[in-house]
Amino acid sequence: MKKKEYQKRLAKEKKDMKEYRESNHGISVKSFVIIAVCVIGFVLLMLVFTKIKTGEWNLFTRENSITYSAEVQSIKILCGSLLNREDSEYYVLAYEMNEDNAMLYESIIEKYNNATNKLPIYKIDLGNSRNNICRADTANITSDLASLKLSVPTLIKVSDGKVIENYTDYNSIKNILFSYVD
């Protein structure tokens, strides 16, 4: 009888092992499929975020039918090209464009650009490292570029390649430019 019990027990263990292998195989295939779907989903999600971030897909912007006339009113220039513009008479405003009070100068320029009878205006960013050659704490405004030094802020009126007027404080700059505003 022991032999029969032993064979029964052995058959039961074989049956249990077979069921375990089959169920384990099903679980490993199932987990492989889940992991594969997660990896593919992550890659696709990263692709979508990259396309949106780089601007290839504009999913969250609405295009409107408003058209704006693209007219350049003020141009950023470098300090070395201050005196050699094509215009015979113009203004140059030098200030740091990344400072807190830069918006004050931008609003003055915007109002100035709305005037009808005005001179062209150019901007110099004294915060730009390429303009360090002409930046100083005290202004030395001459028509010689080698000795020209600008402080923040400075408004220069240039006529025929020569500096004819200069202003180095906010109120005088505002008054001069607003004198052109209608």
Question: What would the keywords be for this entry?
Answer:
182 residues; 3 helices; five-stranded mixed beta sheet; 2 domains; alpha/beta
- Shape type: rod-shaped
Q: What is the correct CATH architecture of the largest domain?
A: 3-Layer(aba) Sandwich
Count all strands and give the number.
5
Tell me the series of helices and strands, N- to C-terminal: HEEHEEEH
Supply the number of helical segments: 3
Assembly annotation: single chain
Q: Largest beta sheet, briefly? A: 5 strands, mixed
User: Hey, roughly how much beta strand do the residues contain?
Assistant: 15-25%
Taking the alpha carbons of the first and last residues, their distance comes to 118 Å
Percent in helix: 40-55%
- Report Rg: 37 Å
Structural class: alpha/beta
CATH fold-level label of the largest domain? Glutaredoxin
Q: In terms of per-residue confidence, which ranges show pLDDT below 50 for 5 or more consecutive residues?
A: none
Q: Please list the strands of the largest sheet in the order they lie side by side.
A: 1-3-2-4-5
Overview of this structure, please?
This protein has helices at residues 2-54, 102-113, 170-178; strands at 74-77, 89-95, 121-125, 154-159, 162-167. With 182 residues, the protein is α/β, with parallel strands linked by helices. It folds into two domains: 1-66; 74-178, Glutaredoxin (3-Layer(aba) Sandwich). The protein has a five-stranded mixed β-sheet. The longest helix is centred in the first third of the chain and has 53 residues, at 2-54.
